[in-house]
Amino acid sequence: MPRYLSLVKVEEKAAAQGPSSELMQRMGELIEEMTKAGVMLDTAGLTPTSEGTRVHWEDGRLSVTDGPFTEAKEVIGGYSIVQCKDRAEAIEWTKRFLKVHEDHWTVTCEVREIAEG
User: Fold this and answer.
1) Which residue, 34, 88, 101, 117, shows the most beta carbons closer than 10 Å to its own?
2) Which regions in the chain score pLDDT beneath 70?
3) What is the pLDDT of residue 9?
4) CB 19 within 8 A of CB 84
5) 3-113 CATH fold
């Protein structure tokens, strides 16, 4: 059965305020449902870009840059890895994930199948 990575993109300034306790409760309930259904393999949020480091390779040279990365308005705030029968099921679970957020959140998920072998 194929696995899918969902990259959760958020506006970092809005996300810095953190999720409400109600959002965390709804998220916990959805993750529990997905885990019991055998769909959720892994998920986590990521620390702010101010705590990140970019390691870049170009023209045979490495560069290392510490965050914050101010040029990025939207950043990857988390991820999930799910195992679903097909892309349509992965997208349905992703829609449910987005719908647990309050209206003031701006969140985009990029769903990509993990290449096997």
Assistant:
1) 34
2) none
3) 94
4) no
5) Alpha-Beta Plaits (3.30.70)
